[in-house]
């Protein structure tokens, strides 16, 4: 059997990254290994503050000397979307290998990234300010005023490992649409998706000064990006601890944070709970639960709880676990063994505290943690109170709908929540009561369309993603007044 490789990446050499129009290999390297079996996929440069300085200087120069008109931004993004669509299988293989995302799920991510670039192109074409009614006051008589949206400046983008293509597209696409150059730090575990996407954008016509990929650790690359005085905006996706640390470290910058969640889903007895079970089979375990909106806390009315747990446990046991390149695989490895052992430890702790492991909970012969259903969980258990970020769904039984809403709200997170009910009154009550950035009715909280406003409250973040909303953050409003 041949060693799996990423198209366009030589596993035997250091893959250089684009900075200031050149391919930079550096003097030290970071090995990238497949989470599933440890296969060496390649290496990337271990860079630092010097390369960040060079990238920012080039980005600032490009913004001032070569501003991109809106039509050109849209043209680049549309062409990049076409190129990405043509290479969907190559990108899917890259995602599957470096992130251990099952190949079918990886294809879906590549398709979503195409949409993200297309929506970004649409925003670039329609980006506009507004007219200010100056003659609404005597002081404004004879004057015409309008607002221009101009690029905020150089964007520093720090990306996560779990969606190594589409979440990077959610940073690069809007930045290009806004006319902002970007200095991008991909996750060290999954840098190749970013490198391949950069190649596509350059092929689509993006000038070299508008994108620089700086690989390296958080302290060596991340901190210099956050601290650099010529970076106007930071966009970060990752853990709350790191995210709020960035916000505190850069009080004078715009800092957009998309962080964690322990997504709740409430199943009322009058809802279509069988459909909900089928959806949770995917929503709670896809990509081994490594999604900010992975369904984690499942509140089930006590009158249907036994049936729900029985059917969901049976469904979870049918999930195919294994090699991410196998077409049959539904769930593969967590990003590393440390994360696997942490999640397994939380499940064991819940069992010791009185919960029942209704399915899974074990590490298979291939080292993959099996999809796990925990019944009889309580709010104080880590599998409920914290973000598991693993293939675990915890069931909490309740008797009163308002109490379920209260328990769902009892969290430091606030990204998305869901409710299944056939009662429109309950649905509206949930919409008004659940204190989350998004509330979905008769759908799992794991649902996301790439054009929607997406973001949370509290430790889930402080911004809205989605190209139309991200572009607002990445532009400044400039008031123009003409005196007639």
UniProtKB/TrEMBL annotation:
Gene3D superfamilies: Aldehyde Dehydrogenase, Chain A, domain 1 (3.40.605.10), Aldehyde Dehydrogenase, Chain A, domain 2 (3.40.309.10). Transmembrane segments: none annotated. Keywords: Oxidoreductase. Residues 28-478 form the Aldehyde dehydrogenase domain. InterPro entries: Ald_DH/histidinol_DH, Ald_DH_C, Ald_DH_N, Aldehyde_DH_dom, ALDH-related_metabolic_enz. The keyword Chaperone does not apply. Belongs to the aldehyde dehydrogenase family. PANTHER family: ALDEHYDE DEHYDROGENASE (PTHR42991:SF1). This is Aldehyde dehydrogenase family protein.
């Amino acid at each position: 059997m041949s060693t799996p490789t990423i198209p366009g990446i030589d596993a035997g050499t250091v893959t250089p990254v684009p900075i200031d129009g050149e391919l930079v290999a550096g003097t030290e390297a970071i090995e990238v290994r497949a989470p599933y079996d440890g296969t060496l996929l390649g290496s990337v440069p271990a860079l630092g503050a010097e390369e960040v300085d060079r990238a920012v200087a080039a980005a600032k120069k490009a913004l001032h000397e070569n501003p991109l008109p809106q039509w050109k931004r849209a043209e680049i993004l549309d062409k990049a979307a076409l190129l990405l669509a043509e290479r969907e299988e190559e990108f899917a293989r890259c995602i599957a290998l470096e992130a251990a995302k099952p190949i079918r799920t990886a294809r879906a991510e590549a398709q979503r990234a195409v949409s993200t670039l297309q929506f970004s192109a649409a925003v670039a074409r329609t980006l506009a300010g507004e007219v200010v009614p100056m003659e609404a006051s005597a002081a404004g008589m004879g004057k015409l005023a309008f607002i221009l949206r101009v690029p905020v400046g150089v964007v520093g983008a720090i990306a996560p490992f779990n969606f190594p293509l589409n979440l990077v597209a959610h940073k690069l696409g809007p930045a290009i649409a806004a006319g902002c150059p970007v200095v991008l730090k991909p996750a060290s575990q999954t840098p190749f998706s970013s490198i391949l996407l950069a190649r596509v954008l350059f092929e689509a016509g993006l000038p070299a000064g508008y994108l620089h990929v700086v690989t390296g650790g958080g302290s060596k690359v991340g901190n210099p990006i956050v601290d650099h005085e010529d970076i106007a905006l930071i966009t970060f996706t990752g853990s709350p601890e790191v995210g709020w640390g960035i916000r505190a470290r850069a009080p004078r910058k715009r800092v957009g944070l998309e962080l964690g969640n322990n997504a709740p889903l409430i199943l009322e007895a009058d809802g279509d709970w069988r459909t909900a079970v089928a959806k949770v089979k995917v929503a709670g375990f896809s990509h081994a639960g490594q999604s900010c909106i992975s369904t984690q806390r499942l509140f089930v009315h006590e009158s249907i709880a036994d049936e729900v747990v029985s059917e969901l446990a049976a469904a979870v046991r049918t999930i195919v676990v294994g090699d991410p390149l196998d077409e049959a695989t539904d769930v593969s490895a967590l990003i590393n063994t440390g994360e696997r052992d942490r999640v397994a430890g939380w499940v064991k702790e819940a069992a010791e505290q009185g919960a029942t492991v209704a399915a899974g909970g074990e590490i298979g012969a291939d080292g993959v943690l099996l999809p796990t259903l925990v019944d009889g969980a309580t709010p104080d258990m880590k599998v409920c109170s914290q973000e598991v970020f693993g293939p675990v769904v915890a069931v909490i039984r309740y008797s009163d709908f308002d109490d379920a809403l209260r328990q769902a709200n009892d969290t430091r997170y606030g990204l998305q929540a869901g409710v299944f009910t056939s009662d429109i009154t309950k649905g509206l009550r949930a919409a008004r009561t659940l204190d989350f950035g998004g509330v979905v009715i008769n759908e799992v909280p794991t649902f996301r369309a790439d054009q929607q406003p997406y973001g949370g409250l509290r430790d889930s973040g402080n911004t809205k993603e989605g190209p139309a909303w991200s572009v607002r953050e990445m532009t400044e409003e400039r008031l123009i007044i003409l005196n007639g």
